[in-house]
Amino acid sequence: MQDNQTPDTVLTALAGALASGGVQLVDLTRTLAPDDPTIVMPPEFGQSWPVRIERISRYDGTGPAWYWNNISFGEHTGTHFDAPVHWVTGRDLPRNSVDTMPLEPMLAPACVIDCTEACDKDADHLLTREAILDWEAQHGQIEPDCWVIMRSGWGDKTGAEYANLQADGAHTPGPDAEAIRFLVDDRNIQGFGTETIGTDWGQAGHLSPPYPAHHYLHGAGKYGLQCLTGLEALPPRGAMIFAAPLKIKAGSGSPLRVIALVPGGTD
Amino acid sequence: MTRPVPPKKNPLLRTQVPLLPPQPRSLRGHLLIAAAATGRFALQRCAECGTVAYPARDACSECLSPDLPLTDVPAGGTLLSETTIRNTADPYFRRLTPIRQGLIQSDAGPQIIAFLHRDCTPNGRVTLSLKLDAGGQPVVFAFPEGPAAPDAEEDPILRELTADPLHARILLTDGRHPASVALCKALLGAGAAHIFVGVAERWKPSAQIDALAAVEGVELIDLDPRDERSVMDAAADLAGKIEIVVNSAYHYRPGSLLDSGAALRIKDMMEVGALGLVRLSQTFGAAMMGRGADGDRPALAWVNLLSITAQLAHPAAVTYSAAQAAELSVAQSLRGMLRGGGVRVVNVFHGALDIDWFEQVPPPKLGAGALSKGVVDALKRGLEDVYLGAEAEDFRERMDQNPKEVERSRWT
Amino acid sequence: MTAGPRQAYRDVVLTVPVTVPYQRYSIDAAHWWFGAALRQLSKASGISHKDMDGLCAASFSLAPDSAVALTQHLGMSVRWLDTVPLGGASAVASIRRAARAVESGDADVVACIAADTNHIDSFRQSLSNFSRFAQDAVYPMGAGGANASFAHLTRNYMDRFGATREDFGRICVAQRQNALSNPNALMKKPLTLDAYMAAPPISDPVHLFDCVMPCAGADAFLVMREETARAQGLDFVRLTGSIERHHSFPEDPVQERGGWARDVDDLYAMAGTSPQGIDVLQTYDDYPVIIMLQFEDLGFCGKGEAPEFVRSHDLTFGGDFPQNTGGGQLSTGQAGAAGGHLGVVETMRQLMGQAGDRQVSEARRGMALGFGMINYERGLSSGAVILEASA
Q: What residues does the Thiolase C-terminal domain cover (chain C) (predicted)?
């Protein structure tokens, strides 16, 4: 906050900036649709429901003047938010579910690490600590309590290409264990975001510990954001992300609308 | 298989509406449905004096015993006389005249009036069969004794009593059924014109789906019976040109009643099975019902692949059993509905399939080939309830005898 | 069990043959036809319907009513009542029941009425509901109705005894010739054997002119003691013999004889006559093959000899073997169950000298036959009466 601004002038200025286009809103959300890939567990485990939309009525005999649907989905469907209680490492933390978590993290700055070039070449690309340090060398050190978002370009994909399941599991980019430990322990970020189906690497079950992003983030009370899209509109730094999960009782996560506030053009 | 491919439909002509043959039967007359549905030739036989009773009776005309259980009897007979019905007051049969009808001295005893296959010879030997007519009621059809002629299935009345897949356009609803490749090959082998195979969540790779795509005559389509819109979209394209639906939705998961998540599992399986069948019925079923008499290519049949656990819960698969029971219930309703359109619903019951989920189950298990062969056979013979494989047959026989015994022994 | 001697009929007479002219279709209910017939009976006899104390009704189209409902509907108060649902055998059965009723004094005047209506779809409906066995085991196999059932009997008879279509045709042609002198007959055009042979097949070997035409109509007469008839000044015919049999010869794989064959000796013994004593014959003619069975079973010729019999006899009212002198049902029309009464009223008219242009000369003794109820694959009911002129 600059010295000449009081809280109410900040909001007034924001309103003006939004109206003038000085600050723009960018939708980072995939459409909740039945055939959008979701996390797949081995068949002997329980499965998350994909999105289902069932019509209650559409100006017809079951409701002459109104249209509405019943919807159902797992908490981790579509563009969604992971709360610490999602993972066993975060199970005993205070305020670890979407209904009890503090509000502040729901509006936070974002650092966007562009890995698209590497991910284009290698679906199994791993984001490393070194890569993060390289990014910091260019854009400055990552501040505490921000979102770090790994931009892989995956959000443009759909269907099989998006899930990229092979006989040995999913092949999608993600962070390695060291990178996540660095962000959590040394940078104290509030959460990690990805465009892929999880915050973890596709083959993260073979890392140590398995699923390190889930393991370390949630063990430290941090959050996850996944299945993001439209990240090309975000600058490496300077964007704010509004990401408020549904207030589901004892919920481990929730689909949500993720909106970024980004600096607009100069005009 | 000599019938040529039917010509494309003339869009200027009215689609014939389905009509049904005369449906009323007496209370006892309904006994014969059980035999016809499973392809047996069984009539009432007096338990006291052995006299075979036909038409269905409430008392034995020899000894007046009321104990006349349905019993398998010899199917042979000799043609006493015959007529060719060229004129009838019944609108359904008017479309089918001339109709050959015989008066037959059955080897079992009674004289029997039956439809005559066109290859029957005057005063010749015949083999009698009980069939279900287009409305699902029992009728008697006589084949000539001995091996069938190459195009025997082309008899026009027999075609009304069966659902031969020759030239049919088929929808296999779930390409992920473990027997889907074998099913497609068997149906194509029986002359099916084209098979649309539904695949849900195409983004999940599968060697089986790839293998299906490589079968000539098979076309993969997006179809997720769990998703209302997906079913509606597929039906919008295809519902008007499907003659046979093979509902192969398959989602087996073991589990006991006390497993955490049991209710959720049932719900998941019901989404695929029972509720999927509801969605398919509302779209494809409704369209087929209107096409039961659609010229050279009438809608013929709807096959549901079901487990015998639909009829009796299995302790190793409690949740699956519950979901299967629900699906069977929907299938019965679908049968009731489609009967109005002259379209048969064939419920194929099987035991453990020969797949990895049943590794621990000792043989006999049902292989994909036998399942597929059984489905084609059921269609060609016009059966309604089919028990495939030794386990399912054993189940049916024991259930016929004493369902409580089966229930107790299964749960000890 | 041995059959004891049957008691002869003591002074049982039939009077007042009436016919409500047949119509191909009627928009009226069967009750209308009953009413019209009863009115004619009352007018012709001079006995008010309120004074008739017996009613015997036969109909296939009276549902949901039976005879009892007719008593209220038509204002009768009877002390003897019967419904005879025996199709073509109803007339014979009605006479037999009524005869014993008047003989014993249970009733004095019994109105025997057969009446049926024929709406445009009632034929199909009555076929499909005819009997439980037909519903279960005949009609679903092609809905051929009676045509198909009699086709089997005809085919078998042709195969067994060498009858040809021409033989059946001779009967039909003769009956049509008879019908041309019957103002009540629906068929008014002459029929040649060539036209018969050229007719379209209906259910092979049954062709168009082998089939009766369903129609609406009513026939009726009164049964009473001779003293009652004399007191009323009514002309009458005497009942001298009758038989009735249901489900005869189940051992025959295909029906080639009716119940008459079992009881024929009884019939002639009771009436004190023989086939040679019959001056005029009304067979039951739903299909010509059944006429042949009757010629044989009633002893006019031997079994299997009917084809030769029809080739060597003139069956018209002026011929050497007057048969179905009003044209029979084949040329008059078949009014449902009423068809069974047609032969009775025609016999009465012949014996009473009321047959007009078609009167058989010297008709003193006549026989009327009944046959009906193809319950499954054969006709179950058969019957016969012998009637004699009063003077």
A: 262-374
